[in-house]
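Late entry, dinuclear copper ion complex.
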Amino acid sequence: MSNDDKQDSNNDDQQEGLTRREFLGTSALAGAASVGLGTGVLGISQMARAGETEADNHEVAPGDLDEYYGIWSGGHSGEVRILGLPSMREFIRIPVFNVDCTTGWGITNESKRIRGENAPLNGDLHHPHMSMTDGHYDGRYIFANDKANGRIARIRCDIMKTDRIIKIPNVPAIHGLRVQRVPKTGYVFCNGEFRVPLPNDGHNLDDPEKYQSLFTAVDGDTMEVAWQVLVDGNLDNNDGDYSGKYAASTCYNSENAVTLSGFMHNERDWVVVFNIARIEAAVKAGNYKTIGDSKVPVVDGRHGSRLTLYIPVPKSPHGCNATPDGKYVVAAGKLSPTCTVISWDKVDKWFAGKLKKPRDTVVAEPELGLGPLHTAFDGRGNAYTTLFIDSQSVKWNIADAIRAYQGEKVNYIRDKMDVQYQPGHNHSSMGETRDADGKWLVSLNKFAKDRFLPVGPLHPDNDQLIDISGKRQKLVHDGAVFSEPHDGIIVHRSKLMNKTLKIWDRKDPFFAETVAMARKDGITLESDSKVIRDGKRVRVYMTSSAPVFGLTSFKVKRGDEVTVVVTNIDKIEDLTHGFCLTGHGVNMEIGPQATSSVTFIADQPGVHWYYCTWFCHALHLEMRGRMLVEA
Ligand code: RUQ
Ligand code: CUA
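Prediction complete; structure with ligand written out below:
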């Protein structure tokens, strides 16, 4: 778009009496009425225009808003990142399994309650996925796995903060994570990847026969583990269907090995399909055991079970992606150049006893190229698969692949495009929902090599934006990104922008325990700034309002356990304060109308300055105070 064009479209907006920003602002106020309607945020004509300009021009002019949210994992950084698409601008980071010095995640009492007191400091977050209702994103939660510590987390979309983290019993690592689409989320499906002896009590290293892995369903509303299923092999990625009946997982290591050469032996591994109704019935009927200290019901879904279906597929399959038309699930071959397309309909028939062999559920097995890892969809019947070894994104047509499998001579490959370099996941706009719109594809590439200025031996990754609205894929943007986004989802802004809060609600459960503590101390957080001593425990309550803290000094004694509680009484959007206490490893964010608290031992006699870390006012640098630790 030339500058003149931009000028024109700005004028356009103004002639209608509102700039787009103002328009979006007004509709956000009126948002309650349009929530959940998908295109409800913009009027139809506005939507069409925004869509058109943005689809043929990925640049978003200064001051304009993106059409999509990108919700990206941060891999072994342990966090989630929120981007705008198509600009690929990073907005914020949401600390989850990591410690974050900007916001105080892992430092504040509020975050420690969510993480657990002695939680590991690291995490490996691969798969962030949003809750759904009837196969549409519903903007309530984002769920994500921790491969490093066998945990899962939930992020509240209204505040974009992690609100629950739980440890999954009996598994050392959770890898694949997806949500139940229908009727709603509902279950969060979690794949236990590494196999360990169960119970893992120190008696067994050398008998892999006793090693096992589990598939877990968590109730996304309560964050309680509902049930687990014992399986053969190692679970990798998974997905739910569009009817609420099944979940499917790719599953490698049918060899039950524990070494690389052992893993690679068999020509075929599996896709495992979990029959949710049968599993629930088995649990209800008491046909389960428990393992170790865990009370979670564990049903047996190994070969021969009525609860599961093992479909042989070539070879160490990886990605597992359900098509948005609700008909199929696609397993990427990884070590085989193929993807396997499985029909949910035929899965139905198999469980009803109408098919002979598990392989009869397969309807296509297109040959795509080397190292297929993950598949995305455009809602027009095409699939896009990443080819790790070929360093390509291949577009192929599902219906044609099915015809080819039936023996017809058709070319199902539509387009192959080089990506830079070695893609892992990809994702298309709204592509894991019924609303797949076929506008954008992102290829999350593991290697950047020569694409950016050199920055030492550690390179960024390269997230590439691809326009898929036309016949051929068109690369439009290179996005350098700090390691390592594994996966991401692209969510239309209509699903989220009316649901996010601008300032905190004083009744938010996020800091409710701190509020309750203050109440016991007789403190009104919105107005009181006071020190309460309770033996060697000292609670320091203060307000913050730009540019002053409610207390500009306070005294404690050496050895006291001090809890500082700061309440931001400013009611202004974007006016965040910080509280950083020098020399004590303390820094935290206090958003408008929020309360944050931190506890430390005052073990260094002397004067210690505390100061505000968020630029909040012309006198922000003066927003500070002193703590005296008496000798
Ligand atoms: S995985 S690069 Cu952890 Cu999603 Cu496939
Ligand atoms: Cu408050 Cu800077």
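The pocket of RUQ (ligand 1) is lined by residues 126-127, 175, 237, 318, 373-374, 424-425, 486-487 (CB under 6 Å). Will revisit in the morning.
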